[in-house]
Specification:
Elements (H helix, E strand, L loop, with lengths): L33 E3 L5 E3 L9 H14 L6 H47 L5 H108 L2 H37 L8 E4 L8 E5 L11 E8 L6 E2 L7 E2 L8 E9 L2 E6 L10 H9 L3 E11 L2 E2 L5 E7 L2 E6 L2 E7 L5 E4 L10 E7 L2 E7 L2 H17 L16
Length: 494
């Protein structure tokens, strides 16, 4: 009987197991440490931490790109898609290497199984059981490798889809970048053309300005030469003589005007059949705006005017109905702008006897007053220096200077920083020339700012007084207000 020793495995011939072919390349330097678990399941013995695969990294990067797409610029978006495309290419290369490694593993397992099969026929006993267990492990590894190959094929398909998507997105991003660049180039060209047009316009304007300036300079030189010629022709002594001559002519013209008015009065008296002996009163004064008319007795039999009742009227030049001038009950009346172009009458009543005095013609306008008023209308606010002679019917002894503002919406009277009256144009406001007041009536006006507040104001000249009345009535008319004169009960000067 043959005795079997315990070191049987150690005395086996080395050539019993065929050598592995040298053309097989292993993925690592050592064989994997596999263990057989329950139900003959192969369990990896390594406890290493889980590392994120390339597929998961690319998926995460793609998700971040999609979330930030609206916030990224076109250039950054193109750069991101290009990096994603490179990562997809890298993933595809890794899958190809894994496929090659899987093929090598299949070849290795097949050769290992063939070697174990040949070894199982040569051994017996316990060693045979170990060989069969090794063959079962190799078959389990082959099954798991087949499953892994299926997962790799599916993963390869997904990677291919992702690579195609990233490639298309990269191409779209490049197309969008090209469109934006083309649009930017067009905008730049348009801006350059606009700048060029502006430069050309500026050059043309500068050229025209130079030409116009040269033309103006030539015209100015011609005017200066003409002025010098006129100065040489007219010596200062000759100009002075001409001024004196014009002044003398004006004086003669004024005297002839007065003489003409007297002749017209005499002619009117003769036409009415009135004799000088029977005429008790007559009108004295120039019948023009800016002067005053006065009733004077021309006979010793004329009653005193203080004992007579006087009323002034204005009548249209066509002989229409006469209109009562409210408050004009004194012997002196200064025509106001409303009287221009109308005939004035004065009725004197004494002991039931009525005497009527009439101007020889309509009241003439003041020379230059219209243009003066038109120049003042263009201002927003016009000021006149005045003196308050009466306030609420009471004489004011003070002769301090006040300022009357005639504005487009209101009138204001002030002294320094103190305001005496400030009222908007209204139906309760009244404005007219002073009725009476002696020979200063032509320079004074009556102003009732509102009920219970009235002033008599004296101006520096007749022109300022008439201009103030015309301005106030015009501005009030623009505000749909008609400034009327006072009623007969209002005191309007002495």
């Amino acid at each position: 009987m043959t005795r079997v020793t315990r070191d049987f495995g150690d005395t086996m011939q080395k050539d019993a197991v065929p050598a592995v072919s040298s053309d097989v390349a292993f993925a690592s330097s050592r064989f994997p440490n596999y263990k057989i678990g329950a139900n003959n399941q192969i369990v990896d013995g390594k406890d290493d931490l889980k590392v994120m695969s390339m597929k998961e990294a690319v998926a995460r990067e793609t998700a971040l790109l999609l979330e930030q797409q609206k916030r990224l610029s076109v250039r950054d978006l193109a750069s991101k898609f290009e990096r994603g495309l490179a990562a997809a290419a890298k993933l595809s290369e890794e899958a190809r290497l894994r496929e090659a490694a899987s093929l090598e593993k299949h070849v290795l397992l097949k050769k290992l199984r063939d070697a174990l099969e040949s070894l199982r026929g040569r051994v017996a006993g316990r060693n045979k059981d170990d060989v069969e267990e090794a063959i079962a492990m190799v078959e389990a590894l082959a099954v798991q490798l087949t499953q892994r190959e299926g997962e790799l094929i599916q993963e390869k398909s997904e990677v291919k889809k992702l690579a195609d998507f990233l490639k298309q997105a990269s191409e779209d991003a490049k197309k969008l970048v090209d469109e934006e660049r083309a649009f930017a180039r067009a905008e730049i060209e348009s801006a350059r053309a606009s700048v060029q047009r502006v430069e050309e316009a500026l050059k043309e304007h500068e050229r025209m300005s130079r030409a116009s300036g040269k033309q103006d300079l030539d015209e100015l030189m011609k005017e200066v030469q003409e002025a010098r010629r006129i100065k040489m022709l007219h010596q200062p002594s000759k100009v002075m003589d001409m001024e004196h001559e014009l002044r003398a002519l004006r004086v003669q013209l004024a005297e002839k005007t007065k003489r003409s008015l007297l002749l017209q009065k005499e002619l009117a008296r003769s036409r009415r059949g009135e004799l000088n002996s029977s005429q008790l009163y007559e009108l004295e004064g120039t019948e023009i705006l800016g002067s005053y008319l006065e009733i004077n007795p021309c006979s010793d039999d004329a009653p005193e005017l203080s004992k007579c009742s006087i009323q002034w009227y204005r009548v249209s030049s066509e002989g229409g109905k006469k209109e009562v001038i409210s408050g004009a009950t004194k012997s002196i009346y200064a025509p106001e702008p409303f009287d221009v172009g109308r005939i004035l009458q004065a009725e004197i009543i004494h002991n039931g006897q009525q005497i009527t005095l009439t101007t020889t013609g309509a009241i003439d306008p003041a020379a230059g007053l219209g243009s003066y008023v038109e120049a003042l209308v263009r201002r927003h606010d016009v000021e006149f220096n005045v003196v308050v002679t009466q306030m609420n019917g009471v004489n004011q002894p003070s002769e301090s200077i006040h300022v009357l503002h005639v504005g487009k919406m209101r009138m204001k009277l002030r002294k320094g920083k103190t305001t005496n009256a400030k009222e908007y144009y209204s139906t309760s406001m009244q404005l007219c020339g002073v009725r009476g007041g002696g020979n200063a009536a032509a320079q004074a006006l009556f102003w009732q700012a509102k009920k219970g507040v009235s002033f008599v104001l004296a101006f520096e000249s007749e022109r300022d007084r008439n201009a103030a009345i015309m301005l106030a009535r015009r501005f009030a008319f623009d505000c749909n207000i008609m400034l009327a004169g006072p009623d007969d009960r209002t005191p309007l000067g002495n």
